[in-house]
Amino acid sequence: MSIKMQFAPDLVLRSFSEYEKNKKKQDECFPQELEEGLVYKFLKNGQRAYWLEGEQPLLEKSEDGVVSAPKASVIILEVTHFFSEGKVFSRGLYKVVKCLKEGEVYSHDQNTPRLLSPGMNGHPY
């Protein structure tokens, strides 16, 4: 027996168009409108561990699998795991700290990870 656990340095949500096409649940998708200070739900397939002590990037994955540069800085407020229909899921809440413009580099504190724009310091996005 083994435990499958994924450690996630960021929160990646699917394009909202996948919800509109009934391919994904709404909480699996990037919100249509993102506002600083608001709290949103998320749902991910698999058992995932998120950093809860500071900000991390929120990214969007397109229908063809391309992951965006960071679109916001968020704080994960809570995560729970559950078993449904033979699969493990992670669900939780995140709060938007700052919405980012395309290409914007943001770091709220030198003691926490930086949210990088594409191509900086070997960043893969």
Sheet with most strands: strand arrangement: 2-5-6-7-3
Based on CA atoms alone, the radius of gyration comes out at: 15 Å
* Helix content estimate: under 10%
Total count of strands: 7
Counting helices, strands and paired strands, the structural category is mainly beta
Poorly predicted runs are: 113-125
Distance between the termini: 35 Å
Element order, helices and strands?
EEHEEEEE
Beta-strand content bin: 35-45%
Mean pLDDT: 87
Give the number of domains. 1
Number of helices: 1
Largest sheet: 5 strands, mixed
Global morphology: globular
Describe this structure as you would to a colleague.
By secondary structure, the protein is mainly beta. The protein has one domain. The chain is 4% helix and 40% strand. The strands form two sheets. It has a five-stranded mixed β-sheet with strand order 2-5-6-7-3. The chain has a two-stranded parallel ribbon with strand order 1-4. Strand 6 and strand 7 form a beta hairpin. The chain starts with 5 loop residues before the first strand and ends in a 26-residue tail after the last strand.
